Amino acid sequence: MNITINSMNRLITVDSNQWLSDLSDEDTIDTTFDDSVYILSLNKIMDNTDNTTSKLNSLFNDLNLDTDCESINTEVTDQVWQMSDITDTCSGFSDVTIDDSNSQTMDDSKNGFDINVLNEYCFIHLMSFMCFKDLMTLRSANKYMKSLVENYLKCKRKLKFINSFAKQNINIETTKALATDLVVSTNDSKTDQILTLMTQLCPNLDSLEMIYITIDEPIVEVLTKNFYDVKQLSFAHPLGLTEDNIELIVNYFGAQLIGLTLTDCDISEDCLYTVINVCPNLQSLDISGNVDITGDCFEYLNSNLLVLRLSQCDSIQEYGLKALVSSDCRQSLVELVISGMISDYMIKLICESLLNLRSFQCVYGCTRELDSKTDHLSIIGNLSRLEWLSLQEIDAYFGSLDDKCLYNILSCCNRLKYLELHIGSGEPLLVTDQSLSMIANYCPEIECLKIYYFEALTDRTLNSFSKLKHLRELELINLYNITDDGITIITEQCTRLTKLWISFDGNCDSITNITLSACISMCKNRPKSLIEVNFFETCITVPFNVKIPSNMRLRVSWYRPTPEGRRYTEIRLPNDRHSVTI
Q1: Which residue range is the domain that position 101 belongs to?
Q2: Which of 71, 164, 245, 483 could form an S-S bond across to 34 if both were Cys, CB 3.0 to 4.6 Å?
Q3: Which residues make Cβ contacts (< 8 Å) with residue 259, sequence separation at least 6?
């Protein structure tokens, strides 16, 4: 029996007698898996042998997968296969040899490819694009595959658990996540059993991340008995996680933890004090979303800490920032994320004391106790070592950011590689082309640039952006004075650009198919680069006779009023076209 794998109009022939043989009952796993975010999906398996079919069906029943053993249709997405022939996959492996004896098989398969020429290195490479469910299915194929999968899992060090019912709310970069992490999508009923299984299959895990997972007593018991070498632990938006259980977990791992994330865990200042004292070697601490934290215990942070994230910690007080800048981590801290009701005095404390910061993100910055005569954000220029700067929801009404202030920041922070400027919607236009056009002059190393709501920005500034030879990502949101001419110059001059995002809250008639043609030409001129282009609420129409290059990921979306209500239409090319009515 042959198994056929469809991959972008190419056929791969597999001998099932070699690949799906000798299933044993011990390969059945008594756990429950749901669909995961995945690229390579083994959806269905076929065998004409009743015995094998029965065993495979038993396996799927135990796994509670919505599939059967009637046929196989493995879909490999464009993110995995970016090649003109599957033999290119093997070109990076020195041990791979393709025997001429396979030529007859390839001819018979009509441009197909005999998978038997792939050695174990190629299989392991393919496994890096599989979700956990598929790995378990492949593990049950035969003894050879079982050995390959288990050896592959032993090398995995990062495990990411995602609640299958909440994963639609999770923004995850699929390709990167699956290539580096082992991603498991599950419901809450069998999480403890899956965790126990993972301790056996992945003995070298040192990083565990749990997103929207219910952390109950059985889970805590597994974590504190079966995981020995975990150094980085993350609980993001957990359900049922109590402060007592948090203290049990951190007491178990103790000094071995170097990274800890407790996002939206509703912890108190007392619980945070326990965490800081029990885990003295923390290098990264993320307590975002914990609204009861005031920062009183920041004085106990030590010099090992490099990263501190306080996003949406709305109760952080000035005395908490004073404790932070007077603590032992004052000289070691290289990344700080803070948001909430931030006063100009708090910004001053940070910029005068944490001079070694490489990354600074401030959300809802400077919104209370402001002196309109003071350009207090200029003090960010003190952080001359910054490589990442994000100023979001800046309240321009009080004059917190104007041309003079931006000049000072840019001229002092000339090492920037990431810059995000986002003023509040509808605020006065105090920043103009005069200062925005200086970004390329003062910060020529910028790789990612995001500009939001600066409606005074025109093509003059876009022309200056064309000097950014290292620019890879560009986001322009609600800049109604830009035109096709400015975007065209960027697509021609920024030869490293891989992501372009242009969006408006309302329809903008200055961005038309001329911009689309420029982006298509850019992709044609760089056939080896995968380029993502997004347009929202523009006049781009994407005629059906337009040919989109294979290396271009184009997304065009807009709202249109209809008698039935607002209709949201989205076109994604070259893959599909679809529309949704809202």
Answers
A1: 2-149
A2: 164
A3: 207, 231, 232, 233, 234, 282, 283, 284
